[in-house]
Design a protein that fits this description.
single chain, alpha+beta, Pnp Oxidase, Chain A, twelve-stranded antiparallel beta sheet, 3 helices, 12 strands, oxidoreductase activity, acting on the CH-CH group of donors
Length: 167
């Protein structure tokens, strides 16, 4: 796989900034514990909620119940944004990943994603794989979504730099 086109936006960067490599962003996406999902309600109003996500095979994966607001929003409009970062002003790397999601339904991929949740978050986040979704022991269902980046932005702090990656 070739990497994305990487560009530093000098308008929003320190004079001595350099573009953040995509490899650093990918590592941060893999390590981040909490993400913020932004979707659009059917009436056009935004909706933002925190959730857990895993990075696997160059995509972010997350799950939600079929009756939750974010599931309804994504059924109407698959375009969304996942963000992660720090609340620190002077250190760290904040990331914004834009794209359209797709439902993951095949058992083999769901199993790999479920295994990745346990590897990243521990056994407390064990999911069973049911028919086209995650399930749990009390009968709950969680739809699984894949967000493969179209565009991503990195906001480096300290030496401030805004990097854009286009896929």
């Amino acid at each position: 796989m070739t990497g994305p086109v990487t560009e530093l936006d000098s308008r929003f960067s320190s004079p001595d900034a350099t573009a953040t490599p995509w490899t650093a962003a990918r590592e941060r996406l893999g390590d981040a514990e909490v993400f913020w999902l932004s979707t659009v309600r059917p009436d056009g109003r935004p909706h933002v909620t925190p959730l857990l996500a895993v990075w696997l095979d160059e995509a972010l994966y997350f799950c939600t119940g079929p009756d939750e607001r974010k599931a309804h929003n994504l059924a109407q409009n698959a375009n969304c944004i996942l963000t992660t970062g720090t609340s620190s002003l002077h250190k760290g790397l904040d990331l914004v990943v834009e794209g359209a999601v797709r439902r993951v339904k095949d058992t083999a991929t769901l199993r790999r994603i479920a295994d990745e949740y346990v590897a990243k978050y521990g056994s407390e986040w064990t999911f069973d794989v049911g028919e086209e979704a995650f399930t749990n022991q009390v009968g709950g269902v969680a739809l699984v979504f894949e967000l493969r980046p179209d565009t991503a932005f990195g906001f480096a702090k300290g030496v401030y730099g805004q990097t854009r990656w286009r896929f």
